[in-house]
Amino acid sequence: MTSHVDAEILALSAEGLLDPDEEGSVQEHLAGCDECGEQLNALAAVSRTLGEVPAPPLPADVAARIEDAVQAEVQHRHERPSGPEPPRSDGGSGGGAPLPLHRPKGPKHWMPYLVAAAAAIFVIGGAGAIVQGMFFQDEPVGATYEEAEKDENPDTALAYRPVMLNSDVEYTEEELDTQASEVLGSVSPVALPDALPGAPESDAEERKGSSHPTPSEAPSDVSSCVHKLGSTNGGQQPALIDVGSFQPSGGGAAEDAWVMYYGSEPKDEFDVVVVSPRCAGTGPAEDSVLAETTVAGP
Amino acid sequence: MDAVQELPDKELLSRHAQGDDQAFNELVKRHRERMWAVAVRVLGDPEEASDALQDAFLSAFRGAHRFRGDAQVSTWLHRIVINACHDRMRRKLVRPSVPTDDATLDVLSNERTKGTTPDPTGRSDSSLDVQAALENLPPEQRLALILVDMLGYRVDEAAEILEIASGTVKSRCARGRARLLPYLAHLRNPEDSRDVTSPRGGDRRS
Predict the structure, then answer these.
(1) Which residue ranges make up each domain of chain A?
(2) Which of B57, B83, B205 sits opposite A4 (nearest CB)?
(3) Total of domains in chain B
(4) N or C: which end of chain B has fewer CB within 10 A?
(5) A40 and A10 in contact (C-beta within 8 Å)?
(6) CA distance, residue B95 to nearest chain A CA (Å)
């Protein structure tokens, strides 16, 4: 006797996801098979069963706890040295005053071209968008932030400020090496002129739209994360920090992630460390490391 | 004039980013019930869910400047809550998301059938059963089903939250439902529950 239709096929059919041929043969089988018809009903019942489970209400103590935590955070924001100061003209007031990144003793961890790239960082934002487009063509390319070093901030123009990138690259565990190389490639000045076909500056400006401030420097939580990581890696500073997202292998939604690129001078290599924004929290910095790898420089 | 209660979400978030102390609290009040429902479903444990919820709101508080105006604030919050849940799961390594083996199934089934008459309302029992059954799904299928079937989001809403295509949401839901079938069949036909551990679960091809 011919085999019954697999439950998964039935479920896909119910969602209209089968191609016409397959759908046709499923329907043909269903017409003469009560058992599979029953199976189809059972699948619909699964949906109903799931929908009938009542959502438990938010317990009052949890609500109160969160309110307290938010209140404490508001307080904390006030206590930061320059937290409540009016935001700079370029915005970026989101997380209060950034903890300045510490300047290492000498510029030995820095690839000179990355320093150069900092000056051209606006352009890099565009390149980042292109990188994303290459990997996720079916997804809308979101607005990219350009983390420009602003001329009017000479005080923050440390030689060691890492290049901040908002590439929006959705890093994945499987592709991390490739993606990291791509991103590094996109900031190399060698690649810059070619990486920007019709540099979509005005587009980016428009897309950014809305009244939301664009961060212009490492958000304070990034800075404190770098600081914490520094205490575990001998004070190394990343050359480049990319604010993107990361998808661990084995599925699951991508989450925000900061991808730190640590250059090492003797070898043309970068250590790439993917950390969760939780890094800025109270736990040990190591716990927030989602993935690590080493890639060759561009 | 404009009491915070009357401002749209985006305006609140923007005010918060500019230093307004009340704005974020209003956002929390607006969204916490929904976010709680998501977290408690995803994690299956109120204790963990409340931690994740707090993590998420604090992370949203600090990350408000990363919000992009082209999404809904609520969509953005959903993503943060889901990420916070994943973070919790990863850190606790609650359990690997491998398919449940027969032994586990036996336990589930035995607990269910031993000396109980099915609760006519099915309420409390079925909640637990559903939660246990969901544990057998790969995370991405579970997430899609939680949003669409359990919490009633439209497919396109779920797609935006998860940042995947609508078709992907549908196929994850479909595969998830098929996979749940053997675990939930008894809720529909209580008299059949004894069969759950028998090859019934595998009779899809028989």
Answers:
(1) 1-70, 99-296
(2) B205
(3) 2
(4) N
(5) yes
(6) 13
Q: Does B149 touch chain A (CB under 8 A)?
A: yes
Q: Under an 8 A CB cutoff, do B149 and A50 touch? A: yes
Tokens linked to B17: 């980013």
For B93-148, write each residue's pLDDT tens digit.
Answer: 644 444 444 444 444 444 444 333 443 433 456 788 898 999 999 999 999 999 99
Q: Report the distance separating Cα A17 and Cα B155, nearest Å.
A: 14
Task: Determine the distance in angstroms separating the CA of A190 from the nearest CA of chain B, rounded to an integer.
Answer: 30
B66/B145 same-domain check: no
Does any domain span residue B44? yes
**How many whole angstroms separate alpha carbon A116 and alpha carbon A81?**
31
B166-198 pLDDT, tens digit per residue, is 999 999 999 999 999 999 877 765 444 444 443
Cα nearest neighbour of B179 on chain A = A8
CATH of the domain at B62: 1.10.1740.10
| CB-facing half-sphere around the CA of A234: CA atoms within 13 A | 4
CATH of domain A1-70: 1.10.10.1320
Beta bridge partners of A171: A246
Please indicate, yes or no, if residue B122 is contained in any of the structural domains.
Answer: yes
Q: Which of A29, A47, A49 to mutate to test the interface with B (most CBs of B within 10 A)?
A: A49
A287 CB near a chain B CB, below 8 Å? yes
Q: Which of B27, B21, B46 is nearest to B36 (CA)?
A: B46
pLDDT tier, A169 (very low <50, low <70, confident <90, very high otherwise): confident
| Residue ending a domain, choose from B74, B92, B110 | B92
Q: Are B31 and A61 in contact (CB under 8 A)?
A: no
**Claim to verify: residue B69 and residue B116 sit in the same structural domain:** no
Minimal Cα–Cα distance from A178 to chain B, Å? 22
* B24 and B81 part of one domain: yes
Residues B128 and B56 in one domain: no
Contact B18 A87 (CB under 8 A): yes
Chain A residue numbers with beta carbons less than 8 Å from the beta carbon of B133 are: none
Q: Which of the listed residues B58, B92, B126 is the one where a domain comes to its end?
A: B92
Considering the domain architecture, whether residues B18 and B70 belong to the same structural domain is answered as: yes
Q: How far is the alpha carbon of A253 from chain B, nearest alpha carbon, in Å?
A: 6
The ipTM of this complex is 0.74
